Every structure is written in C-alpha cells, then in structure tokens.
From TrEMBL:
Pathway(s) it belongs to: Amino-acid biosynthesis; L-methionine biosynthesis via salvage pathway; L-methionine from S-methyl-5-thio-alpha-D-ribose 1-phosphate: step 1/6
Family membership: Belongs to the EIF-2B alpha/beta/delta subunits family. MtnA subfamily.
Active site feature: D243
Domain of life: Bacteria
Catalytic function, reaction form: 5-deoxy-alpha-D-ribose 1-phosphate = 5-deoxy-D-ribulose 1-phosphate; 5-(methylsulfanyl)-alpha-D-ribose 1-phosphate = 5-(methylsulfanyl)-D-ribulose 1-phosphate
Alphabetical list of PANTHER family matching this protein: METHYLTHIORIBOSE-1-PHOSPHATE ISOMERASE (PTHR43475:SF1)
Protein name per UniProt: Methylthioribose-1-phosphate isomerase
GO biological process entries: L-methionine salvage from methylthioadenosine
Enzyme superclass (EC): isomerase
Pfam families registered for this protein in UniProt: IF-2B
Length: 363
C-alpha cells in the first residue's frame, strides 16, 4: 500500500540484506518513522514492544530475526537459542511459531556456511507468500461486500471492524481490510465503523490512519458503540482478523472481539473473520480452553499515548493513581458466533468441517 504516494511494505530487507527495516507502529498515526533491525534482540524487542504487530507481520519479523541471528552465529546452539528467544515474545499469535518452524526447516541439516543464505531466501519467500495470501483473502472477501451492496442498491455498505487487520498488520494488503480496499477501489460505496480498540487504540490510531491514507470513508467510534450501531441497522456486516484460529473455527482476536460477535449474533448481523491459513492451529479444538491469552503490562490500561500540545508524543495517566489494572490482550470468539471464515482458499463456515473442506490435506 502507499504512504504519501510511495509504496511500502511493513517490513523489508535493506540493500545489503544484512539489516531489516520496519515501519515503527508505536509512532503512528502522528509520525511515520522507519526503524532498522540489526540484531536478533532488535527483532525480538520490535515484536515485544509492538513496533510491529499483527499475526502475519509478527511471523515475518521473526523470520528475519532468525536471519539476523545467523549473521552473527550460524551454530546449532545459536540457532536454537534464537528460536526460543523469538518464541517467547508474543504467546497468542500462532504465525510466530509457524514462521520460526519454517525457518528452522530451511536451515537445519545444512552446512553452517550455507545457512544464512538459505534463511534469507526463506524469509523473503514468507513475506512474498503473505502478500499473495492477503491479496486472495481480499478477493474472496470482496464477494461478501458485493452481495451486501446488491442487497441495498444505491446505498452505502457499512462495515464494522475491530483492532487493526490492515496492511501494516501483515506484509501488505491486510486480512480484514483487504476486501474493503478492493471494494473501495472497485467503486463500491463502503463506509467503515472503526472501533477505537482500547487499551492501545489500534483502531483509532492505525486502522483509521490506513483507511484515511487510502481514501476509504470511515468513522471512529468508542469500543462499546458497536452494539448500539447494530441495533439501529447501521452495520451491514462485521469483518475482523484473528491471531489464532482453532481446528474447530474458534478465533482469538484483540480483546473485545467476543463482545462484538455477541452483539452481531443478537442483531442478525453477519460476522466474518479473515485469516491466512498460517493462523490456523490444527492442534487445538477448544479455543477458550486451549489458546494461551497474552497478558500485557498494566500501564497500557492506566496510561494513554497521544500528541501533546508541543507536538511531542506523550504518555498521560488516565486511571486513578495506585489502582491495579489487568490487561488481557485477546479474547476467544467461539465458532458458533462466527458466520464464516475468509481464507486465501475461499470462504467457509466456521467449523471443523468447513475448514477441512478447504484444507483437505489437514484431514
């Protein structure tokens, strides 16, 4: 996608292939800054501090993290230590482990002198594959928006999303936002309700920044406004992303997604989830019981980041001083509340049968 008329991916190798550049998402939407990753620890910290975020991008960053580690030490011990360092950064997003496993498979049993080049090739492939995967997700999801537009000719299709599942959560295109970009580019009248997504405000900060940059009509709303909008017929469909999807179709996404799905179910609003197949955890059936939920530092709840009157990015305390805060980063929406899944292979019901029909090799 483009920023100020220039095409960017969210992560890319620098010219010498020895370092990697990322868009620092902790500075958005107020500043567009590029950060350089030079070491394994740089990559791990970028994931932990959410300079990069979104399941597919976390996986891509971990892949390049392995490359950076091998550039320093290509031994077996260093490779395993790098993998463990990266696995510990974010527990919920399954793409992290998927990408690390892909990288290990690409370099294990190779001579040390060949490992770095093999790792770079596989990391580049992971990024290119993610872009193509998300493009296909966009095309399949576009059919849902076309159907919604056909059901109300001449009127705007109102879509509610939660958190950020756009191009900066992936390598390019995005998951939940890819169909919206394609619908807008195709001339369909779309408008997006953007949940602010407390506590880090990824909706208000990142999704709104993305949509505004692409010219997509949108409105930021408080997290708890979704149910009200649905009750009054102001939402035609919901589309969110997911950080991990079970073999039965349960989805783990940013905290608050479950409440949106409940409201959608009560009001007869279709609730779709867009995901690359690398986000499916085929080893888990029950998402509520089996998906690990990341708990982040309390400061994200008690403080908010914004632009101060002097133009500097500042953090301001908004909670009662001394009050403890809990910060659950994700919740799980059971498959029974999900109308359907949007994958690179097509649309399917949120069920084990639906997923296996698209991915018979996982039978």
């Amino acid at each position: 996608m483009k920023v100020n008329g220039v095409h960017y991916r969210s992560i890319w190798p620098d010219g010498d292939d020895e370092t990697v550049s990322i868009i620092d998402q902790t500075k958005l939407p107020h500043r567009f800054e590029i950060a350089r990753l030079e070491t394994l620890d740089d990559a791990a910290r970028a994931i932990e501090t959410m300079q990069v975020r979104g399941a597919p991008l976390i996986g891509a960053t971990a892949a390049y993290g392995i490359c950076l580690a091998l550039g320093e030490d290509a031994s077996d011990d260093a490779l395993e230590a790098a993998a463990e360092r990266l696995r510990a950064t974010r527990p919920t997003a399954i793409n992290l482990n998927w990408a690390i496993d892909e990288m290990l498979a690409a370099v294990r049993n190779r001579p040390r002198g060949e490992r770095l080049q093999a790792a770079r090739v596989r990391a580049h492939e992971i990024c290119d594959e993610d872009v193509e995967t998300n493009r296909r997700i966009g095309e399949h999801g576009l059919t849902l928006i076309r159907d919604a537009a056909a059901a109300k000719p001449g009127e705007t299709v109102n879509i509610l999303t939660h958190c950020n599942a756009g191009w900066i959560a992936t390598v390019d295109w995005g998951t939940a936002l890819a169909p919206i970009y394609m619908a807008h580019d195709a001339g369909l009248p779309v408008h997006v309700w953007v949940d602010e997504t407390r506590p880090r405000n990824q909706g208000a900060a990142l999704t709104a920044w993305e949509l505004g940059g692409h010219g997509v009509p949108h409105t930021i709303v408080a997290d708890n406004a979704g149910g009200h909008l649905m009750q009054h017929g102001l939402v035609d469909l919901c589309i969110t992303g997911t950080d991990r999807t079970t073999a039965a179709g349960d989805v783990a996404n940013k905290i608050g997604t479950y409440l949106k799905a409940l409201a959608a179910k009560d009001n007869g609003v279709p609730f779709h989830v867009a995901l690359p197949s690398s986000t499916i955890d085929w080893t888990i059936e029950d998402g509520v019981a089996g998906i690990p939920i990341e708990e982040r530092e309390a400061r994200e709840v008690t403080h908010v980041q914004g632009l101060g009157p002097d133009g500097e990015i500042v953090s301001v305390e908004i909670a009662a001083p001394g009050s403890p805060a809990a910060n659950y980063a994700f919740d799980v929406t059971p498959a029974r509340l999900v109308t359907g899944l949007i994958t690179e292979r097509g649309l399917c019901p949120a069920s084990g049968e639906g997923l296996r029909a698209l991915f018979p090799e996982k039978g």
